[in-house]
């Protein structure tokens, strides 16, 4: 304390604490005492006083018999607390060691056979040194029988059927792959949609449902077509095709097509006059027409044809009123309740209430003539993404065959999808927004019109179906944004690694696949046309295969990230990422 010399009181250890900071204070003996202080920082220099240590003292690995020279075996790693030390790896000399070589800098061990060895275990002693200290580890290398040929799916196509609305957990099928020697495989699907809907047991390949599947819901599912990848060590890969068919269950009632709220008939209408026609659709099978219509309330005037849905006059209004001792005006309004029933148990029935009013006749004939079409239900077509305001249909009003502007018209339904424009005797329906074919395949709307003149007429009703035509406006979409694969360095040339799948939302059109380095790389790399890439993709199939021997230390092994491209016939391209990890 009197000389100001600073000495060590304890031994410094770089690996424990690399820096010491404190203050030195100097004070005189006067009164009052005066002092000063100065900060001191001691930085400890590293000294090679610690031995390197392997992370494991024993490594147990396996490779296939008759593996080619240079096959990756293992990577041993040691840690030296001395930061400045450089480690060097080597194999202790022995007969077994002559069959292998080790990278002195990275500790990577590769098979370098000098003679054929079958069914045995090599014992390697690995040394690591920092030039002063050293450590030793044992690596046991087991030679395993190699499968005679690649694994194969037990079936060319696994096809299962499941009833819609089946409970989650319902068993569907089992993707089975045959291997020689019973090698263990891991089963998986890369499809985000499939993994959301189905559960694939990674160990057994058992496929079951995660959720109930619905054929008619907001996201209808009728068929699931996907691939299951079975992969294992030693370059074992097999891609199995699976198709799940969702069977229909009669779980939806029929839906009536739009009908006018009120039907008007002339009082002098003869027997057999068609009042209206019922049309209904079964959502469970839209292509099969409903053919079971009934009149639920007893009517003295009307009858319904069970098959066609035609509601006709079975007795004249005059004959009916003559037999009734009430005022004729009180008999002009009739309420009808009709039903439509589907064709499969458990049967579902839908009811519809309609009003029929008789008007004194004879009445002039009033109708809408629409773009030369005269059918009661008209089909229209429009390309998707057409701008709002696009003309859909034009009509003109007629009374007894002569065009007139004395009429009233309105949209009976479809107000959110279309707009009605009236100018004189011309009536035009235009789109109120662009339509997207991938969201809605058809739009329905209807017109209701009647004469506005002094002479009353029967109102008219026209229903339309607008089919939205597909346009190539969306790029193909891969089943997942990124594929991650662990691939054995020993995977043989020609072995399948992946079935890349993309879907064109615009339709089931052929796609062209490409595989390019993620860094941008030369055009067409990795395609069937050939390139220096160790991977290749089928331009039409999307099948990714090994095109050249895989070597972790070879420049051909990089990059290990690729761009998967799928291009449709219009030139629109979708993209996913493929990441390969060599093991």
TrEMBL record:
GO terms for molecular function: beta-catenin binding; cadherin binding; calcium ion binding. Residues 1-54, 55-256, 257-366, 479-582 form the Cadherin domain. InterPro entries: Cadherin, Cadherin-like_dom, Cadherin-like_sf. It is found in: Membrane. Pfam families: Cadherin (PF00028). GO terms for biological process: cell migration; homophilic cell adhesion via plasma membrane adhesion molecules. Keywords: Calcium, Membrane, Repeat. Its main location: membrane. Coiled coil: none annotated. One of its GO terms (cellular component) is catenin complex. This is Cadherin domain-containing protein. It comes from Macrostomum lignano.
